[in-house]
Design brief:
28 strands, alpha/beta, Rossmann fold, single chain, nine-stranded parallel sheet, nine-stranded mixed sheet, globular
């Protein structure tokens, strides 16, 4: 493995697809890139068919040689793709069974991208041949700075149900369980007469008469993610052999359900992300911030690359809203504030043809006369002045626990309620933390929690013994744990812990759950907090018994009336809080405030339209202030002693932040988002 990818400046650019344009355009592209401040591009992502016109044809590198030479002469670094994301049509004439099969038995046809079965050996061999040719050709090219492996793994095809994948699934299961008796015990196959006598009897969980075995479904998710990971590692192995000095990445898609990025991140040198917040959603930036904090955390706190975003509209929503003036800049600066060292787009020049021709580009169809082009140039100039941020980290004291396997297990069918969905729950807890002025890391169930004062677990339906022990030890040594509803129910085999939920954390919580009360659509259940506030839950409630904990809120309706709805318990040197309902963000924030203050973490009340971040190095600390409100000026109180980043001017503690405005304020001492306060605003504080 290389030493990572740590540019000493902020990178700026996007996907460059010169194969879509005649050669006379290429020189004009480089000139305009220089004018816009572009210093980095992703090249050749969808160029397999042009590089290799047929199974027996010679590789066609002449055009790519010319483009890379032009970019290098223009001072532009290259993130060179392995070009494996879109196999050419000829491959499926050669290997018809390399086309993937869906859950209900349909074999997909040529015409889109990412058409491949990850298990097909002919496809894998073709991938190796292509990657070896590209790496061998450009291993010593002076513009090559990074390898871009495939593209958005799992975006369209995250699982294939063909017989080849069925065979690989059985191989994976044998490695996991060793013998068929162990698998039968783990899968609980005594139910519905599902006992297996030999491995050949096991199939993928294809369409069946009714619910498939939940443990089988969960293992299939694990296998499918690992199967794609194996395809990634196949390419990386070739790249590390030929170019060990060149770092590698593959672009993630944030919270893509079917790919466990925690496993993937350790196999690459730098984590990168494609992010497309909806311009029509006034709080879309909150979800974007959650993605940015995810990828920073996946990289162990190292800075990461925003590999793709849109300058304006995308092409794939039902209605594709453009980004109003100023929003593209703010979206990009938000990524930098959350740890990005690259601001890049799909794509450099908007396409004339194809499925994404209505997707915006840095250079739109209108060309240099467009508003977007002027904003692209202005942002390129601004990023040069923010160079110090490229070397800074994002300090945090609070962590939010996330687990892909829990996501898969929670949303397998045949549950008490289909209304409990992982990402809406996680987003509510994250938004509540941001509204309290917190920077947030994401952590994994059995990861290191020692650097945090508080760990927030929105949901841990699936909880292993190791994860439960990790959380218990965290609280024992003085940490503060907040645990959301329907947690600690099953182990890694989807088997329920008996004796009251959550079986492995009852002592930590000083409470246990007897049963659940899913609410019908439109129904509510009243709750009274200890501060006298009347509130309610809309989807879910639990009958909670206290065994040492104290109640912070009680239900006021139905047969749960008088029962605890929120509990707090001293355990070891720390405290644990449990929410026995699916509360709204405001009530979650009320509990989190109590837990954070008890943990010694300062809080403030910030509207969600305000994104406050901190970037720090040993002797410099920068507050980033971003107002995502479209019409409202925010009046802020800042810490004393601030200076404009990149300038000598002082920044007054009282600051007016206009709509869609961004400010970077440098301090010589540590600061935190909670040091910022809204003084007056028509926006109601959270």
């Amino acid at each position: 493995m290389t030493n990572g990818f740590k540019p000493d400046q902020l990178l700026y650019g996007g996907d460059y697809n010169p194969e879509q344009w005649p050669p006379e355009i290429w020189r004009e592209d480089v000139r305009l890139m220089q004018e816009a401040g572009v210093n980095f591009v992703s090249l050749g992502i969808f160029s397999w068919a042009k590089l290799q016109p047929g199974p027996d044809a010679a590789f066609n590198f002449g055009w790519l040689d010319e483009v890379m030479g032009l970019l290098h002469a223009g001072g532009i670094g290259i993130n060179l793709a392995t070009a494996t994301a879109s196999p050419p049509p000829w491959l499926f004439v050669q290997f018809p069974d390399a086309r993937p099969v869906t859950w209900d038995g349909v074999r997909l046809e040529v015409g889109g991208r990412q058409l491949y079965c990850p298990s097909h050996q002919g496809f894998r061999s073709a991938v190796q041949t292509l990657v070896r040719a590209v790496a061998g050709r450009y291993s010593d090219h002076p513009a090559l700075r990074l390898w871009h492996v495939n593209n958005e793994y799992g975006c369209h095809i995250s699982e294939c149900f063909c017989d080849l994948c069925g065979e690989q699934f059985r191989v994976w299961l044998r490695e996991r369980y060793g013998d068929i008796a162990t698998l039968n015990a783990a899968w609980g196959t005594a139910f519905w007469s599902q006992q297996y006598g030999e491995w050949a009897e096991i199939q993928p969980p294809r369409q069946a008469p009714t619910y498939a075995n939940p443990a089988q479904q969960l293992d299939w998710r694990r296998f499918s993610s690992d199967n794609l990971l194996g395809l990634f590692e196949l390419e990386v192995e070739v790249l590390r052999e030929i170019t060990p000095q060149v770092p590698v990445t593959t672009n993630f898609l944030g919270f893509l359900k079917n790919v466990d990025y925690v496993k993937w991140a350790g196999r690459e040198d730098v984590v990168s992300l494609d992010a497309y917040p909806d311009p029509a959603d006034p709080l879309g930036h909150v979800e974007a911030a959650l993605q940015y904090d995810l990828v920073r955390s996946l990289g162990g706190g190292q800075r990461w690359l925003l590999m793709e975003q849109a300058t304006s509209a995308v092409n794939w929503r039902t209605r594709n809203a453009p980004k109003r003036p100023g929003l593209m800049r703010l979206d990009s600066l938000q990524a930098v504030a959350h740890g990005a060292s690259a601001v890049m787009y799909f794509q450099w020049r908007a396409s004339r043809a194809g499925a994404e021709k209505y997707h915006s580009g840095m250079l739109p169809h209108v060309g240099e006369k467009s508003r977007t082009w002027q904003e692209v140039k202005a942002l390129g100039a601004e990023l040069r002045g923010l160079r110090p941020l490229a070397q800074m980290g994002v300090p945090t004291r609070v962590a939010l626990l996330f687990n892909w396997e829990n996501w898969w297990a929670l949303e397998i069918d045949s549950k008490p309620s289909a209304d409990l969905r992982q990402m809406p729950i996680v987003l509510k807890y994250y938004a509540a933390l941001r509204s309290l002025g917190q920077s947030v890391d994401l952590v994994w169930p059995e990861g290191d929690l020692s650097g945090y004062d508080a760990v927030i677990v929105p949901n841990a339906y699936l909880l292993t013994a190791g994860a439960a022990g990790n959380l218990r030890a965290f609280v024992q040594r003085g940490g503060h744990l907040v645990l959301g509803a329907f947690s600690g129910i099953v182990d890694e085999h989807e088997q329920i812990g008996l004796g009251g939920y959550p079986a492995m954390l009852r002592d930590v919580l000083g409470a246990w759950v007897e049963e659940w009360l899913p609410l019908a659509p439109g129904a509510t259940l009243g709750v009274r907090r200890e501060d006298g506030q009347e509130t309610q839950t809309r989807t879910w409630a639990e009958k909670l018994h206290l065994s040492g904990a104290q109640a912070l809120a009680h239900f006021t309706g139905d047969y749960l009336a008088g029962g605890a709805a929120i509990s707090e318990h001293a355990f070891g040197q720390g405290r644990a809080y449990y929410l026995a309902a699916d509360f709204e963000r405001e009530d979650i924030a009320w509990v989190l405030r109590r837990a954070l203050l008890a943990a010694g973490v300062a809080v403030s009340d910030l509207p969600l339209e305000l994104d406050v971040g901190v970037s720090s190095s040993q002797d410099s600390h920068v507050l980033t202030l971003l107002n995502f409100h479209r019409t409202e000026t925010l009046h802020l109180q800042l810490p004393e002693g601030g200076h404009e980043l990149g300038g000598a001017g002082n920044v007054a503690p009282r600051l007016d932040l206009a709509p869609l405005e961004a400010r970077f304020v440098r301090y010589d001492r540590p600061v935190a988002p909670s040091d910022v306060h809204v003084v007056t605003s028509e926006l109601a504080p959270v």
